[in-house]
Each structure stands twice: as C-alpha cells, then as structure tokens.
Design brief:
- This protein is an alpha+beta fold.
- It has a single domain, classed as Gcn5-related N-acetyltransferase (GNAT) (Aminopeptidase), CATH 3.40.630.
- It is built from four helices and seven strands.
- The chain has a seven-stranded mixed sheet with strand order 1-2-3-4-5-7-6, sandwiched between helices.
- A hairpin with a 3-residue loop joins strand 3 and strand 4.
- Helix 1 packs across helix 2.
- The longest helix is centred in the middle third of the chain and has 22 residues.
- The protein is globular and about 50 Å long.
Length: about 180
C-alpha cells in the first residue's frame, strides 16, 4: 500500500497476526473514514469554542495531519486496524504498536453512533488475550477526564503515571508485575 505521497504507508503491515475482534488492517482507501472518525470529536470541541465552521474544518484537517505525522514518527511500526460493528460497518479504529514484551494502544476510537456497543471492549480484550499468551504488558495513555478511562479501569488497567493532562495506564496478566 502507498500513502498519499506515493511512499509505502508505514501503518499498513504486510505480515499477518492474530485477529483483533472484528477488524482488518486499514488501507489507503480507509483514509476518508479515519478522517471522519477523527473529525467527529474535534468538531464538537471546536463548536463549543464558537469557531466558524469553515475555520474549524481547516483546523481539524491540520490536526489530523499533525496527529498522523506524530504517530508515524513515534510508532513507525504501528498497525492501523479498522474496527467493525456487528453489522459489518466500519465503526472505529485501533492503532496498535506491538513490541516483544509490550503492546501499546496508541489510539482507539469509535464513531458516536457505535459507542457503548462493545466494539472497543472486544478489541481491548483481544489485545489482552494475546498479551497474556505472549507475557507482554498492554499500555495506553488517556486524558483523566475522558469517559473511556472507566472502561480501561473496568478492564483491569491501572494508572502508573499521572499528570493534569494524561494518565499512563498499564494492564498485565499478573497484576503484581
């Protein structure tokens, strides 16, 4: 697969690995969906700030490109998975960086219309299952006010580092490790 600049898209791996819930590796054809997913929450935030729609659209595009570049630089081997609803529609994404002894959920997001349907839970539990088998830890970062924090805590993640703007959370099969 190639990205828009004509180079191989580093978020698309050529190897295969155990299936994560109902998902498939993203392709360049998925970029419009990934932008829609990203923009959904950002536009709501910008509307609260009373930013005009045209300016908000441009800002969201810039933020999307910036996030993508940051992820490419920090997690060049991350796998970008499209998560599907029970009905088989694209409903979310999981950006997952797998290393030998640790996996990192770089980003997980679900469209508003599909939230609270178990999509993220199934994806995270599949990651936990694989990590248990591999004896790897599963990490993520979340804003302390993000409602998803409750999900992560319910799934056994614990806070290992906290700041005003982020929580570093870890799950291990052995809670003592």
């Amino acid at each position: 697969m190639q990205n828009v600049s004509g180079h191989a898209d580093p978020f698309i791996r050529k190897d295969t690995w155990p299936e994560i819930a109902s998902s498939q590796l993203a392709t360049t054809d998925d970029h419009p969906f990934l932008f829609r997913l990203f923009a959904e929450d950002r536009k709501v935030e910008l509307e609260r700030c009373r930013i005009p729609a045209a300016a908000a659209e441009k800002l969201v595009e810039l933020q999307y490109r910036g996030q993508r570049q940051t992820y490419l630089q920090r997690y060049p081997g991350a796998e970008n998975l499209i998560l599907f609803s029970e009905g088989g529609k694209p409903a979310g994404r999981l950006l997952l960086d797998r290393q030998t002894n640790r996996w990192r959920i770089v980003d997980i997001a679900v469209l508003t219309e599909h939230r609270r349907g178990g999509i993220a839970t199934r994806a995270i539990r599949a990651c936990q299952s694989s990590c248990r088998t591999l004896r790897a830890r599963l990490e993520l970062q979340v804003n302390p006010t993000n409602p998803a924090r409750t999900l992560y805590e319910r799934l056994g993640f614990r806070v290992v580092t906290a700041t005003d703007v982020s929580l570093e959370m870890v799950w291990t099969a052995d809670p003592e490790s």
